[in-house]
Amino acid sequence: MFDECCTPDGMSRRHFMRHLAGASALAMPAFALTRTLRANAQMLSRNHKSAILIWLGGGPPTIDMWDLKPGAPTGGPLKPISTAGDFQISERLPLLAKQMNRLSVVRSMSTREADHDRGRYYMHTGFVPNPSLEYPSYGSVVAHQLEAKTPELEIPPFVAIGGASEGPGFLGMAYAPFRVDAGGQIRDAQMVVPWERMADRLKLLSALETRFINEQRGSAAEEHAKVLAKTQDLLTSKQMEAFKVRSEPQTMQEKYGNTNVGRGCLMARRLVEVGVPFIEVDFGGWDLHQNCFTQLDTKLPELDQAFSALMEDLAQRGLLESTVVMCMGEFGRTPRINGNQGRDHFARAWSVVLGGAGIKGGRAVGKTNADGTSVETEAFSSEDLMASVCKALDISLQTSFTTPSGRPIKIAGGGKVISELFG
After folding, report:
1. Domain span including residue 171
2. What pLDDT digit, counting tens, does each position of 121-159 carry?
3. Burial (0-12, 13-18, 19+ Cβ within 10 Å), 323
4. Residue 225 domain flag
5. DSSP string, 126-170
6. pLDDT tens digits for 33-85?
7. CATH number at residue 311
């Protein structure tokens, strides 16, 4: 897994990090954010599509959020409330309830990976971990497929906010997640030498890179050159202003909430505006083996405020019609409440939420039984979810990739579209 920026195969970590650290010093003083961004939002939405993933790391109790079981022994203390859609959700999500005409819930997710690392990898890639092959994350796949449609994009096509995501696998380091914290801070992004001197260094380094590539020393040199070029573009681009969420009006910051997930969702909207194809917002801490309901009293309102503000903001700016928004973790949690008033790992029957970019809102797709222990309708997988996202983003499901060993891999792992989200 790619918790940090990884070293391309065939290149020593010391060599790679030495060059990358030098390139990191390219950051120029901040530019004023252009005021035409919002005015151009509808034009941008016609020209590109994006996806935002709100990642609830640890495995959220979807039985207490999106598929409540009032009156059942497994139901817990939270009550359902009506929404703007044709279903109910948790009483702790009243702001989201008003946005559910724009979102749908898939209640019949059924997967096999109930271990954190394996479940995280599977829900990010559609594959179980394989020691002989690193599969690309969905973020890397979407970035790879959509990057060409935004030639004006100068910052990375895949941004991970607030935490790590999965890596680019065999697609290469050009599609690795670019990590920033929820405040938009980027490590090692400050100028340490005059710009003129740095420009001379870059010319020399570029010449060296070209020499290595011409000597055909393998793909590592080409990957290294791509990373360096993107780093230079990134740290000298006015689009870097998109990371500065505190430049938003105070009223907008308050709307999203003074929390990491609030700032992360606000930054995600800003990144969509400049054309970033895939943004992942990390909101962890959902491994609720004990005191589940006490912790939900804090976590659900934070999610409610940030997620609902994002949906409303995207819609008002004309961006929701071209942006898929997803909210999920690696699995759900057990219907049975344990002795510590918590819920344990459960992958057999759980829910995800998504909408935007042509996905129909207001629907509950699939059904679990009365106590939430099993799926009663057609079960859906990570691959099916990604196939549906690809359809919404106009990415052909006939697309396939070739691994380094020459093996063809179908996009979305060959999953099928969840037709109820579109019909």
Report:
1. 37-184+244-421
2. 999 999 999 999 999 999 999 999 999 999 999 999 999
3. buried
4. no
5. SS--BTTB-PPPHHHHHHHHHGGG-TT--S-SEEEESS-----GG
6. 334 444 454 454 456 999 999 999 999 999 999 999 999 999 999 999 999 99
7. 3.40.720
